[in-house]
Design a protein that fits this description.
Length: about 300
């Protein structure tokens, strides 16, 4: 753990000053967050947490028997129109947390037998999170760190997390400009996403387990969007060709949350034909990981999370 502390200190020296003209994510807003300015993610300098708890609805190797120690940060640098966490990702609902308080949350989750610390949407608060991790690890945090991201990341920033993050859990949402622009106002998503995932794979190209619990590795999530199975096929083919030893998590839990109901093509859930086509493709490609059932429990969505559960 001493090596991890040293790596965090080195990364903090490089990343914290960037908040003065923030360019931590591909939005490159260049606002001075230390002076109170806010960019696309709407975040200030102090982390905002919506809720934190032992999450039993993540991938089986993350939640396992004890649950994933999940911390949901408010705000987002991507801002998808169909986001199931829109209450806090778009509107920044939540509570301000000092580095010390955030470190306490991590240690409490570990004490509750969490298998990992699962940082959900951490990108825009990365320097602050690293500061909290420094405190928590110094005080005995030992469980794996999960970087749970939309995938809209810079390769150079992900490189600074080498040796710090144990499990990368990025989305791979889009592979073309059209859907990325329409749904997330990020025509360049795929460019940055691919570069970031290749860097993650460079760091974590082999998964390691302790029994049924994932301890290290790369898990790529893909949420299938109605009417866009062709996009899914292209994404899964890219994964097979470029990061073949990663784990994949294919998700069918899409619901037309937030503003998605305003777009007719995606104002519905996945149908059985789409589900079967994607499952067949996963089998043909021989991808390893998890495929969600066709019928999902909707109560796992962020709109149903109770902020009062927070530590």
């Amino acid at each position: 753990m001493q090596n991890k502390i040293k790596l965090i200190e080195e990364s903090l020296k490089l990343l914290t000053p960037r908040l003065k003209a923030c360019d931590i994510c591909p939005r490159n807003c260049k606002v001075n967050r230390i002076a109170g300015k806010r960019g696309y993610c709407k975040a200030g300098v102090v982390p905002v947490v919506y809720t934190a708890f032992l999450h039993r609805g993540e991938e089986p190797a993350l939640s396992a028997a004890g649950g994933s120690g999940t911390i949901f940060f408010s705000g987002c640098n991507l801002g998808c129109i169909y986001c199931q966490n829109y209450k806090f990702s778009h509107f920044l609902e939540g509570s301000l947390k000092s580095p010390e308080h955030l470190a306490d949350m991590m240690l409490k989750l570990q004490n509750e037998k969490a298998h990992n610390i699962n940082l959900v949407t951490p990108t825009h608060f990365l320097p602050q999170i690293l500061e909290s991790l420094h405190i928590a690890i110094s005080r005995g945090l030992k469980i794996p760190i999960v970087y749970n991201t939309s995938g809209y990341e810079k390769k150079e920033i992900i490189a600074k997390l080498s040796g710090i993050v144990d499990i990368y859990l990025p989305d791979m949402k889009y592979i073309g400009e059209g859907l990325a622009c329409e749904c997330s106002s990020a025509a360049d998503y795929s460019i940055y996403n691919k570069e970031a995932i290749l860097e993650m794979y460079k760091q974590k190209n082999k998964a390691s387990f302790n029994g049924d619990v994932l301890m290290s590795g790369l898990v790529i999530r893909h949420l299938v969007i109605p009417g866009h199975v062709t996009e899914t096929a292209a994404i899964l083919s890219w994964i097979k060709e470029n990061v073949p030893d990663c784990l994949t998590s294919i998700m069918f839990q899409y619901q037309p949350y937030y503003k998605a109901k305003l777009i007719s093509q995606i104002n519905r859930t996945i149908n059985l034909d789409e589900y079967n086509r994607v499952v067949k493709l996963v089998e043909e490609l021989g991808l390893c990981g998890w495929v969600q059932d066709f019928t999902q429990k909707e109560d796992m969505a962020g709109v149903y999370f109770n902020p009062n559960n927070s530590l």
